[in-house]
Amino acid sequence: MPKLSLVVPVYKVQGYLPECLDSVLGQDCTDFEIIAVDDCSPDESGAILDEYAKRDSRIHVIHLTENVGLGRARNAGLEKATGDYVLFLDSDDTLSDGALSAIRDRLEATDHPEILVFDYARTYWDGRVRPNLRADLLKEEGPDVFSLTERPQLLDLLQIVWNKAYRRDFVTRTGLTFPPGYYEDAPWTFCSMISAERIAVLDRVCVRYRQRREGGNILKTVSRKHFEVFDQYRRVFDYLDAHEELARWRGPLFRKMVDHYLTVLERPGRLPQNARAEFFHRAAADYRARVPKGFTRPGGGRGHKYAMLERDAYTTMVSALAAVKLRQRVRTRTRTALNRSKRSAMGAFYQSQLRLPLDENLVLFSAYWSRSVSCNPAAIDAELARQAPHMRRVWAVRAENAAQVPKGVRVVRVGSREYWAALARAKYLVNNVNFADAVVKREGQIHVQTHHGTPLKTMGLDQQKYPASTDMNFEKLLERCDRWDYSVSSNRFSSVIWERVYPCSYTTLETGYPRNDVLVNATSEDVRSARAALGLADGAKAFLYMPTHREYQPGFTPPLDLARFADELGPDVTLLVRGHYFYGSSPHTAELRRTGRIVDVSGHAKVEDLYLAADALITDYSSAMFDYAVLDRPVISYVPDWDVYSAVRGTYFDLLQEPPGAVATSQAELLRLLASGDYDSRETTERRDAFRRRFCEFDDGHAAERVVRRVFLGDETPLPFVPFDERPHAPTPAQALELVERA
């Protein structure tokens, strides 16, 4: 049997669950088991648990068939625990390094107490860490082991279950279980602490208590469920009634009860407005029914609130709370003035447009900071034209890029009156990046964030950990993300990351990437047309080279000697080069370009056409690898600076260990792979198949249709995915040529 059993209830935490589990599995103490309880979670949390369990036998997963809530999920895990001690860890929190070793050592040093209380710290999205304000109560002073009678001030700690280790035989002996409902920690915590004869403390932060920016916290949920706090304290006092030997705790627990009721009343965002009077009267009834004989109210303002409950003086309490709100309004006056100033800076015209009704049939698209008509927004635009031709579709484009817009596309130039009018009045705004800070999200407007790639490199809040993004304003970033209503995802891998690094209240649409529909549905004629447009001869081999940029470099030079590379590949191979910069100053390189051996496609409007034309892709850290994999053609990862890039920019997986195909870390190695044909072998095909199943799981050719049906047509009936092994994809150039010759 393990020393420690960690019970981890799981519900809608796919963005945080891997970090939670990793924090446990990475502990230097290995004598533990994890009992993970999937509380019928509607996201991918259950699948994540199963994946971890396959890799580590210490993880035991329970999949509940219905959602039962936090307390009952903990009970289900508790029943399966076999360790000497039981700990509870919420699935969005993490253990600090060395926490389990410290807990184990303290348990042994104090001769195995019934309860060990340890410290925690609150962690925030912006990297702040706030210590427990009552950490002083955990100072290891006096006897190592004691009862609560000797240190009653421990009741002033936050009534939580996950900052303690409980000896399992103590839990069994006392019959402790978690009740259903909100505030389920209160009965467990109070009843266990007053029942224990041997308690010890550990003055060390063992749990990092995540303060989510959005969601995941019942304390920020307006609901009548907060009335369940009355049931929880009924259970506490029922326990006292059943244990006369614990009668001395009535006074302290009465005080905890009243303080808790007042907290629910005073904190905004908990009780519905029309339920506040009812809650107060019920709290007052509990007060009068349970007040101990000889009870002395606390002094000061708190004592006045006790007195109002005792008299059931709701009107007086409302007046007191109104005074508190007035003080809060005074404190926010400066912030309000600042916001007004910001709105004023947007311009009188934009403000006037914001006062006009929304245009229910107007859609504004933008892509890559309004530089082009492309990517996922363009694919959604095309599908919308087919399914909802009554909607007017407009693109925001910078003036310097307007000449590149395809014919027939309606454009508003960024900064113009038409642009601000469209931003203010369009019902739908679709972008693959964020709109500018000055854009106001109107009530009733729908913002669709399509993203523009599956992330290998760290994104959003994860960038805070790496030096390449030290100048980013993450607070502003999240304010922009707050405008999203929908976030489009091409795979569950991305969904998990987006929800964690952009913690805002949007709905994730797991549809596949609309821009990749063409890679599934293109015909042999589409492939031949794409090649002909680039001047590629039938039968000629074409490699598409797409290196990404490095934020830590002031400029970018492809880490490849293009001239030498073309020479060694020979005259029958064309290199299509698409990058942020293209160096072509040498006469030899210019000659290669003139003869067609090197084709600069950096300015090509549709990257999807380049994918269709190429026999294989050579890239490094670009998200192009995830899209090109849809075609099931060879992908070569040329990563000569992997160690630097992964350390400075940060990545979500090791590309050297999980590549989409062949890997080269030097130009000589890359040339050998291409010349020998080893880039397209049985081994690389197996790697590509695993990669495609992981990252192309939703790309079945109907992504744009799914987005249009859900967002614009209001159809929430899911469109089934074509089974992975039954999906078509565009023919290779060789297959396209063969089909033509047969015809």
UniProtKB/TrEMBL annotation:
It is a peripheral membrane protein. Keywords: Cell membrane, Membrane, Teichoic acid biosynthesis, Transferase. It is found in: Cell membrane. Residues 5-112 form the Glycosyltransferase 2-like domain. GO terms for molecular function: transferase activity. Coiled coil: none annotated. It comes from the Bacteria. Its main location: membrane. Pfam families: Glycos_transf_2, Glyphos_transf. The keyword RNA-binding does not apply. Belongs to the CDP-glycerol glycerophosphotransferase family. PANTHER family: TEICHOIC ACID GLYCEROL-PHOSPHATE PRIMASE, TEICHOIC ACID GLYCEROL-PHOSPHATE TRANSFERASE. This is Glycosyl transferase. It comes from Streptomyces ambofaciens. The lineage of its organism: Bacteria, Bacillati, Actinomycetota, Actinomycetes, Kitasatosporales.
